[in-house]
Amino acid sequence: MSFLLAAASIAQSVVLIAASTQGGSKTGSGFAISSTASTTRILTAAHVIDGTAAPIVFVGGPRGDHYPATVLQTDKLRDIALLEIQYRGIPTLTLDDALADSGTPVQAFGYPTLATPPGSDPKATPQPLPLGQMQLVTVSAKVDGVGEEGESILLDAPLTHGDSGGPVIDASSGKVEGMVLGLAAGYGVAHWMTGDGLAISAAALNAFLAQTGPATTPAPPAFNVAFVPNKNADISASWAQLASSAGFTVGPRSKGDGACTNAAGAATANAIVREWTEEGVFAFVVTDCSGAVYYQDYIDMDPSALPNACRLIGRAFLGHVDTHRAEWQTLLKFGIAVDPRQNPYLALMSVGRNPFGQLVVTHIFRDGPADRAGLRRGDAIVKIDGQPTRALADQYISKLLDEPSVTLIVDREEQESTVKVTLRRFADLTADGPIPR
Length: 437
Prior knowledge:
The protein is of the alpha+beta class. It folds into three domains: 1-213, Thrombin, subunit H; 224-334, Rossmann fold; 349-428, PDZ domain (Pdz3 Domain, Roll). It has helices at residues 3-11, 46-49, 202-209, 233-246, 306-323, 325-334, 369-372, 394-400, 426-429, and strands at residues 14-21, 24-35, 40-44, 56-59, 66-68, 70-75, 80-85, 105-110, 114-115, 127-128, 137-147, 152-155, 167-170, 176-183, 197-201, 224-227, 249-251, 271-278, 281-287, 293-300, 349-353, 359-364, 380-384, 387-388, 405-412, 415-422. The radius of gyration is 26 Å and the shape is elongated. The two termini are 38 Å apart.
């Protein structure tokens, strides 16, 4: 089937969205992503419906049938919204499961709000169109690059108001490669992105849709991340959006630098997130409970663009999370980021040497195998599987602690006891349910 015929079919999946807000009315685009016997779900940009709880979806353009939409979910950091209408006659589009390569020919579909009046000079300044005169427009482009750790794709074609929320279609496969967000310059990223058009990638759309399943509500303090407070209210709001998108809750900052427990030793968080500005640089760091850096990023920015810097770094962080899912799961669950390819078995404890050369437990990760076996921070490990630890090299100790099970002789307050630790594989540690995003 030629792309011309495919484009005609794709056009039936693209809708016009109108929203009335206190500041007036605005329009955008969207596309059908799934349907049931009586409903259709539609993806659009969150900023298209921002400020209203009752957007209207026009099927077949402004003169077609229109339906009130229910807002099911929004992700303001990624700028995505999921709507539902009581109508099932719209063909649905398929999201690609791979990131588009640079140079991929694509087509962007949308209902622009600006157009050059018929018969006028093509170079004339486009004029605003009334709702009734808007038409579906297809723009040919190429993918110009990838940004924000795969969260965004760049297009070499300029877009305009009203295109936001429209699909970006691979010209060969007919699959959705992304969703239009607007102009890169309009998002304040022209200094580090090339290309005029900015779209959220299909990978980010898939990650967003994965959040729409049954919600998992962990008992506190599971999946809790402590943020260092920021005096800027806009920045604080950006972190709240990041927490919602990444699947953790924002808890109180723990006492001490890098600790995830309070003065009484109770767990308060699974990780620490910090950010700061210095000499025109905005920095963002995520550390685990031992203080080891899990993720860090920075961006040069104008002080007036702080909230935008938060959004850009936040989206890049979400892209990192999606490509390092295993490490993120263990960070949220146990307070330590673990790569299962490097750690076949996990005790989930840290060890070190005290001033007397004894091997001691320096940290126990909550609800891990070592914790369940009854080990505590400060315990001296005298023997591992019958071998005295004082004479063992640290590299050999690491190998001994990477077995299916180990038997430890532990000295606690000058009393020795035998502790058997059953180590677990990464897959088993996370088999009790999905980590919520």
